[in-house]
Amino acid sequence: MKVMSLGHNIINTCILYFPTEDGRLSEARNHYVNVKLEDRNNPYLKVAGNKVRDTHPDDLPGKSFPDGGMVTCVTAIKGTSGFSSGKHYWEVSVRRINTDIKQSWWVGVTSAAEIPSNSSTSFPNTSNGFWFLSSSPKRANSFQFSTQPEISIPFHSRPETVGVYLDCDSGELSFYNVEKKTLIGSFTARFKGDIFPLFNPGKGDTSVMEVVQREVQSQTGDEGNCAESVENKTET
Questions:
Q1: Where in the numbering of this chain does the B30.2/SPRY domain appear (predicted)?
Q2: Which of 93, 114, 132, 223 has the CB geometry, 3.0–4.6 Å to 210, for a possible disulfide?
Q3: Of 14, 6, 22, which is closest to residue 173 (Cα–Cα)?
Q4: Quick one: 2-229 is in which CATH superfamily?
């Protein structure tokens, strides 16, 4: 299935797949980078190193979020630094040992220099520089792409780790179920300027969201800007 939407002179093609074994994950992991979370000092998030979760309502002013129970940019956070060229891959853990798999999250990229902090801001989507995959406890059997209109992607099981592959030059953004070694789906787009990793831990889950860090190796290639390239640790 292929869907095309136009917005802000950026052409987005969304390609959906039923889960199948995909050898491209091994190739993507050759471009692993250690992404760090932006220090945004957001009162609605608890950030500790490479881990992030929503702040408990009891610790918030007014004991509530300004966007209520919705998941919006209020709880979103960027990764550093941005990419403007090259191939890059990172992984996001959405399960903590002895806890349930997270059901509320966003994972993807954005071209926004600053993430909107106003909950009344229109919902982020591909037409305003947000390309992401989202999960919600309200959707038990499908993920969603941030297209307009929104596109649902059926799945058989929730991933414990989501792999994100960004090819700035070809305009590809792909998402993988790392444990199953399957492709969830892909975007293609004309990315312009710096593109930043995007994360949102959602609300109400016990598990935290963790940006997986891997052992750094010396770098001699042209893997682009700013994030640390790392040794491939493909499982056997």
A1: 13-218
A2: 93
A3: 14
A4: SPRY domain (2.60.120.920)
